[in-house]
Every structure is written in C-alpha cells, then in structure tokens.
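Quick start: read one record
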Amino acid sequence: MRNIEQYDVFRLSDELVLRVYDGTRKFPRDEMYALVSQLRRAAYSIPLNLVEGATRPSAKDFGYFLNIAIGSCEEVRYLISLAGRLGYLPEDSRRALADDYEKVKMMLTKLRSAVVGRAGRPQLDAVSGMRLAEGGLR
C-alpha cells in the first residue's frame, strides 16, 4: 500500500481544498447549497480519490482513481472560472486558485502516466513500485 500523504500531489491537492474553502466563505448565502457546495465537493474529491486509489492493490485500479481525481480537478477549474465570472471571487483569488489547479493537474497527469503509462497498461507494481515487465517484475 502506498503512503499517499507523502506524495507532493496529495499535499498540494489538500492545500487546494483549504484554499477553496477559504475562497468560498464570502460567496452569497444563496449559493451555499449550489456553487459553494459543488466547488468544495469537487476540490476535496481530488485528495479523497488519491487516498482511496492508494489503497488499491493494482496499478490499474490506482490509475482508475487517478482518472477520477483528474476529472474532479477539471470540475474545480470550471467552477473557479464560473465563480470569477459571476463576480464571487476577486480576480487575484481566482488567479491564485487557478494557479493551484494547474499545479495539481500537472502532477496528477504525471503520476497517472507513471502508474498506467500512455497506453493504459500498468507500468508500476502497486505494492513494490517496481516497473512491470511482460513476465513479471524487472
């Protein structure tokens, strides 16, 4: 099992969640159960999927959860943009959150490539972290 909390992408995605919570505190009250809720859920879905995927025994399964985390990251990107266009986020806050999103997305994409490769086949053994060869471990 991987200790995902030691991965930089986990720490950055966790920080993004805290910043999203902070950035949404001043949204209009009528958005509490709409945009605020959706943005927060999308943000914390990223580290949650990293945590859940890290417990899975195969690289393929871990890759599945990395794909979900990337999808949640894209939701965050859109919702940050929407909140900015609606005037709920000041431009400097919107830009900072967008920069955080970019870093997390890049790291998730790199991790997914390391785990499952470009062809979608597992590249790393989920337990040992060693590269897989056709007949076993290299």
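The longest helix spans residues 59-85.
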